[in-house]
Amino acid sequence: MEPVAGLGQMGAHHTAIDVGRDSFLIDCGVLFPAPWDVGVEHIAPPLEPALQRAREGRLRSLLLTHGHRDHIGAVGHLADRVPGLSVHATPFTAALLRRVLGERSAKLDLHIVHPGRPVQFGETTATWFGVTHSLPEACSLALETRGGTLVHSGDFRVQPDPFLGPRTDEDGLRGLGDRGVDLALVDSTGAARPGRTLSERTVADNLAAAVDAVDGLVLITVFSTHIERVAACVEAARRCGRVPALYGRSLESTVALARDQGIFGDHGGALRDVEHVAKLGGRGLVVVTGTQGEWRAPLARIARGEDPRIRVRPGDAVLWSARAIPGNDRAIGLVVNRLVDLGVSVTPPWGSAGRGLHTSGHGLRDEVGEWLSWVRPRAVLPIHGEAWHLAEHRRALLEGRPDTEVLDLRSGGAVEFGPGQAARTVGAPTDRTFPVGVGRELWSGTERALRDRRRIARTGVVTASVEGDRVEVVAVGVFPEAECRQAEMELRAAAQAALKQDPRPGSIEDLESRVRLTLRRAVKARTGERVECIVRGRFSRHGN
């Protein structure tokens, strides 16, 4: 078992399993970049381990535990490189995958699986067990082989009475434990925190109470894939005599998929057009995207007063029913403060006021312990988390298990086990570069063009086009608009002077370098910054 990514990273989850000559992959997701990592849309796991297994003819299938982007977001990159990639997923996860991939989904050999129904791959049996999480059809996944049994927890929590959808398949997981489990890979996200997560039914009650206290229009912002929370918002509208609507393309699309799959229950029948509901004031409730302060999301547009469908006013309220992802606090705060300036009552994703309006999809220590009590593995490997999450999860596990039963590993390492051989780590972790997503392309994380993007984003860029002895200069993001035209004229004069100052012939590279250096010095003299300067063209003294 090789965790290619996801052990030491909160995202890009991707694991390779070798069973004799057969190989399987579990999940293939993305990691979202830091806000300051300009020019990068996402970070993918290293794909070479999967590609090597595919080249050797060993890769049987990619097995997906659920449909969050950190678990399926890089499947398209893998499909581009492995023709006819076999993928097994539950119906809703498959629907989300098709939406993410668009026409690229035609490259997949996609198989639908159902929780509790085993799938046979030669001598290996794969079984998905339904668990509760923050989107439908999340699963734990077991691989039972002649060499032993491995179970991947997936992302999970334990809800005895979910607001929407079935409970965790306790009986199935207990049955798996009865048959014997050699190694369990277990979600570490919330495992270090004591207690249990707040139930979704309690969150639904708290949302209804918060909505009932508002006189004007209510906006509730949620993660677009949190179908159970959306249903709770619709229920809060019903209890308070309000008419609900959805606003946000990803949210509307995900709910449409859930309705098509029969997952959304009868909640969809109450939904109405957002423009109609926005005019109802105190009789309206809109579930809206933009939990992380995303600039283009509806909630941020509403806060700026630029949205064409919704105008908020004093007496209205915005409730956050989502957590703030680390790194996004400033963007969220900007939206919150703009809403407050509009006279809107805001319950942000921090502080005591909003504590009961959201709950995590990742189980806390008692829930992780309960899952483990059903599965009863001989060894446990903490997964799904940064170094701190993994270390704290391991420390908690060591309170009830010997050191030999709690493995410690990071991405690029490996664990092996077999008949009569307990699970153990082998070798040293391989240090791999994580590729990055740029549009539909995948670039090396060390690609020079990425450094250029970041530098240009920080300082702007000056371009010079040379045709003979004539130079045209364009500066983007370097000077204030009122000064830009004059500055460009001065730079053009400096570049033309540089071309004429040395009558000796030289290579095109020498001339380009001379003009580039002249422009850099001129810009630095004016702004104090070292700016990227690009010179291209035809130089007359070379007869080009």
Structural notes for this entry:
This protein has a six-stranded mixed β-sheet. The mean pLDDT is 92. The protein has 544 residues and is α/β, with parallel strands linked by helices. It folds into three domains: 2-195 and 360-443, Ribonuclease Z/Hydroxyacylglutathione hydrolase-like (Metallo-beta-lactamase, Chain A); 200-357, Metallo-hydrolase/oxidoreductase (Rossmann fold, 3-Layer(aba) Sandwich); 460-542, Ubiquitin-like (UB roll), CATH 3.10.20.
**What is the first-to-last residue Cα distance?**
59 Å
Q: Record the strand order, biggest sheet.
A: 1-2-3-5-6-7
CATH topology of the largest domain: Metallo-beta-lactamase, Chain A
Largest sheet: 6 strands, mixed
* The CATH class of the largest domain: Alpha Beta
Oligomer category: single chain
Compute the average pLDDT. Answer: 92
Instruction: Specify Rg, calculated over alpha carbons.
Output: 28 Å
Count of DSSP-assigned helices: 16
* Structural domains: how many: 3
Shape annotation: globular
| Uncertain regions spanning at least 5 consecutive residues | none
CATH homologous superfamily of the largest domain, by name? Ribonuclease Z/Hydroxyacylglutathione hydrolase-like
Structural class per helix/strand content? Answer: alpha/beta
The portion of residues forming beta strands comes to: 15-25%
CATH architecture of the largest domain: 4-Layer Sandwich
Proportion of helical residues? 25-40%
Let me know the number of strands: 25
